[in-house]
């Protein structure tokens, strides 16, 4: 279930299989969307939506059978997420990955569901372009050039990254799991200038990606 | 109202005036907090809490009368936010500001309330250190060295920032308001390498702050 005008519009224009689009009368009259909608009542929309304030339009879309495709481990930068449990956070990370041209995101099996409506909404349509790959991260990461984001490690402002690189981000509460620490070739850290104990996982992913991706392209 | 163990613990150890701390029996037995709590039922907590899954402990704290104090415009980096309406987003930005040593955040009057419980929770305790200054941004920013974050502008990866600097971030939906555009001395942009149309406002703030603050300290 995809919610909100932008996301629905994106799936409508993608090659995803849209089963139906449902909207409230108010939405249709105000927004005059370019896609056909079945009208449902405000009450029905409230029941259906995963938001307290429903955006007024939802699309029911088939999850692609081979959503992830094959991962190109020669891509300059890949993102791997360990135990990200908040759907809004995961969605924001997917959107950021899309901004930085990261086409695949590896997810540990205890990450929240990529297809959770709150996650999809937070991606702002990027779920169409960024492919989720759920699996055993230990298997996927072993032997690769993995950078792990920790509270202590090499200062990522002055570190010279090597490519292809995989950036591994752990959960807010537990960090990178002990089990995966062996897969990390280089621990990197975002220098702190103030007193916050940590950064939100999505913020940390973005700040390191910005350095890794610009370091690769030189732009 | 401050929710969650970490935030309650931070206010308990701060010089803020705590009126009362309320917790469920389950929280007290599991967490054995170092602060005294009045016990309330799970049902009462559910009614009180602003979360679907209440963290089990809340503190009622007096809003400091002069919360913001005076703004030191000679600080190397100050953050200004225009129309940030999502409390979770604002809280994450406050936490990020704290990480980067930004002590004051200027907020347009249409930003969401800093003291919204969801915002406070998302700051992870940083609301104690970062001071909110609500006001007329036009007055506060005029004549200052203001960098505005836009979708087009100078590439912030190669721009040499001048200090003291103020970073102005606009809302997700409307960007920096037209009214404030005149205050912006330099438009900066985060280069896009993929196809996402934009970044979350909190992500954008963090990525630019990381460059501005490291550019100032050289670390």
Write a short abstract of this structure:
The structure is a homodimer of 219-residue chains. With 219 residues, the first copy, chain A, is an alpha/beta fold.
Question: Could you walk me through the main structural features you see in this protein, from its secondary elements to its overall organization?
Answer:
2 copies of one chain form a homodimer. With 219 residues, chain A is an alpha/beta fold. Chain A is 31% helix and 22% strand. The model of chain A has no long low-confidence stretch (mean pLDDT 94). The first copy, chain A, has a 6-stranded parallel sheet. Chain A is elongated and about 55 Å long. Chain A folds into 2 domains: 2-61, no CATH class; 77-217, SPOUT methyltransferase, trefoil knot domain (Alpha/beta knot, 3-Layer(aba) Sandwich). The first copy, chain A, is built from 8 helices and 10 strands. At the A-B interface, helix 4 and helix 8 of A face helix 4 and helix 8 of B.
Supply the key terms.
homodimer, 8 helices, 219 residues, alpha/beta, 2 domains
Q: Give the uncertain stretches of chain A in residue-range form.
A: none
In CATH, the topology of the largest domain in chain A is named Alpha/beta knot
Strand order of the largest sheet of chain A: 7-6-5-9-8-10
The CATH homologous superfamily of the largest domain in chain A corresponds to SPOUT methyltransferase, trefoil knot domain
């Amino acid at each position: 279930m995809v919610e909100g005008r932008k996301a629905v519009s994106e799936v409508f224009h993608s090659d995803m299989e849209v089963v139906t689009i449902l909207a409230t009368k108010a939405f249709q009259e105000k927004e005059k969307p370019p896609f056909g909608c079945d009208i449902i009542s405000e009450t029905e929309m409230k029941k259906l939506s995963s938001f307290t304030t429903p955006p007024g339009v939802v699309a029911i879309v088939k999850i692609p059978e081979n959503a992830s495709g094959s991962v190109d481990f020669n891509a300059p930068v890949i993102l791997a997420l360990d135990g990200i449990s908040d759907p809004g956070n995961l969605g924001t990370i997917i959107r950021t990955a899309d901004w930085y041209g990261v086409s695949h995101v590896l997810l540990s099996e205890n990450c929240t569901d990529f297809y959770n409506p709150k996650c999809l909404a937070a991606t702002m349509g990027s779920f169409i372009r960024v492919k989720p790959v759920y699996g055993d991260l230990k298997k996927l990461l072993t032997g690769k050039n993995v950078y792990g984001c920790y509270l202590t490690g090499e200062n990522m402002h002055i570190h010279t990254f090597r490519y292809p690189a995989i950036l591994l981000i752990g959960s807010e509460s537990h960090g990178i799991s002990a089990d995966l620490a062996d897969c990390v070739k280089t621990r990197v850290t975002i220098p702190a200038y103030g007193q916050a104990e940590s950064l939100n996982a999505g913020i940390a992913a973005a700040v390191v990606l910005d350095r890794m991706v610009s370091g690769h392209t030189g732009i």
